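User: Please work through this fold.
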Amino acid sequence: MSTERQTAKVLLVDDRHDNLLALEAILQGLPVQAVSANSGEEALKHLLVNDFALILLDAQMPEMDGFETARHIKRRERTRHIPIIFLTAADRDSQLALRGYAVGAVDYLSKPFDPWVLRAKVSVFVELWTKTQQLQAQAEVTRSREAALRGAGTAIDEALELLTVATAAPDDRTAREQAEKAASVLSRARRRMY
């Protein structure tokens, strides 16, 4: 099975440009494509057109904060499965962390955080996403093969009927015609299987 490997995308959401640059630098060298958004609204727009393996989301942003953004993400069928890691410069208040988990976050890191820890966490989620993509591709191939086999089975049944008619035919010409039709049906069935 040869499936084209898709690069995992990670959505970086922070209202401060320097924080986005720092996150991009931390992810440098990982097998990911970083996509930056400087607001919750912009992040939601990216989520309409792209699939992401992970979202790194600043908790405290003006207008739509990270918690509200996460609620919107988790309400949408298309995006509710995407893991979210909250990042915040706020003090290590456990209430904020609990609030993050309540809206669907898988983790909550306070700044300053260890960049190697963040890289390790991103790597785990990217690997899970990659495995999920591979399983989905394998499932599609399996469904396709099952459909081909069902079609081949139907063609074999049809060919057997034609051969039965051919063996009971009153003359050689009718038998030959039925046998040729059966051979044609079996040939098409064979092509479907491969």
